[in-house]
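S.,

Sequence below, as promised.
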Amino acid sequence: PSHDMVQHEVEQMLQNGWAAVSSGDIPAAIQAAQSAMKLTATVKPGNENPEALHLLGWSAMRDLKLDLAVTILKKSCELAPLDGRIIGDCIRALSANGQTQEAINLATQALDNPDMRNRSGVYYGRAACYLNLNQPEKAIEDYQACMQINPNMKRVVRYIPIVFELIFKNLRACSLMLSIDKLMILSKSSNTS
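The prediction came back faster than expected:
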């Protein structure tokens, strides 16, 4: 088979794999990724397919095999260092695996590269990290950047109430601390008189 025919077949396998992930059929997604990798190797021996690894890594993520997901997605990032979709999913996997600071570092490094494609996914992933760290102001900045790049990214809208809830909790905590400080000051002034 010609290289173009094989490439088309690989793309179809990956498309079917992503559809399987969306419908929750993780075994089918894994099989599609593995088949795409095998077929890629027949045309380019020793050459790994970053898109197939992306699918395989995200399938592991959806299957809650977080260490495996991180390992595979990092490899995919190495092979496609300018693909924001892959890097964004790696960021999300790192964060889910408790490696939030590493995820933020990866995102920041990627966003510093002007050649990065699909930047909205990277902003989206980093915003989620900031939410995990209770830094809603930074999360808002990244969600806004994400929406400016990709106004149709509807999943961002789901997180806006969470961001405002965190801000509200932080404001309530600050208000409570100020009230306690005032009570302490009043208490000290009444003890000295």
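The chain has a mean pLDDT of 85.

Coffee later?
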